[in-house]
Amino acid sequence: MAPAPWVFIGATMESVFTPRQVATALGVSESTIKRWVDSGRLRATRTLGGHRKLPLGAVVSFARATGQQFKDPELLGLASKISCIDPEALQTDLFNRLIEGDEPATRNILVGLYQNGLPIAEIGDRLLSPVFRQIGRYWADGELDVHHERRACTAVLAVLHEIRQWIAPPEASAPLALCASPAPDFAQTPLWLLELTLLNAGWNAAAAGASLPLDQIHSAVRLHRPRLVCLTATHVEDLPTFVNEVNEVLAEELLANVSLVIGGCAVEHAAAKSLKCDLLARTLCDLELYLAKFGNS
């Protein structure tokens, strides 16, 4: 029996708005919004009565693609205007908000960056990765408890889930990428950032799961036959053993049929250079560049 295909699952009840509401939020005229819709630049649906309705995801995608700034984003339930869109400059603020458990402020920072056009890869590399590393160092030194880290993960994952709902489903012909993290890595945030980076690049990205044994990742690959396998590893028990197992269980067979990308802080050590993969990614931006070349090959 053939396996069921991976399908993109987005929002089931996405917020929709009238042209007037979107016009007010963007600070343009209602006729401009209607013209963008009718020309196909801005995606919309129509009611049975012929009235235009604009999904929030379409509005956000349009603003990101065109550089159109929101005058009053809160009218659409988006983040209030943020004074800074430099991820590095926001690291201390986000760290403090996460430790305090301030979920609205966390959302405002992350959604604010996204709605202002920053790629998910940059938000991950330049903001979330350094902040979570800092949380990890404080935890290791006994200055934070495990509940601080868990609460921070929950807050960030909620925002990433919201952002995913705004991404248009991939084309039916989009290539499939399978994402996973190997056991015993239970970290969900890197896996979500990986998936969103792929989706934004036009791939049909599917998460096979976190903390999967390598033989189960291999089984999923053989079943679903993706064009690309992406592994994120933030923790491995023993790096040399992990390298040997990847090379024995995955790489030998995959490299002939499927491209293999491996990244994460657990494989930043020099010993990881012996991993047999198409790309040993240091950052999500490395993956973005690889995907661009992959698409042009």
Automatic annotation (TrEMBL):
GO molecular function: cobalamin binding; DNA binding; metal ion binding
Signal peptide: none
Domain of life: Bacteria
B12-binding N-terminal domain location: 91-160
Xref: InterPro entries: Cbl-bd_cap, Cobalamin-bd_sf, DNA-bd_dom_put_sf, HTH_17, Meth_synthase_dom, SinI_DNA-bd
Chain ranges of the Helix-turn-helix domain: 17-64
Protein name: Helix-turn-helix domain protein
Organism: Posidoniimonas corsicana
Organism phylogeny: Bacteria, Pseudomonadati, Planctomycetota, Planctomycetia, Pirellulales
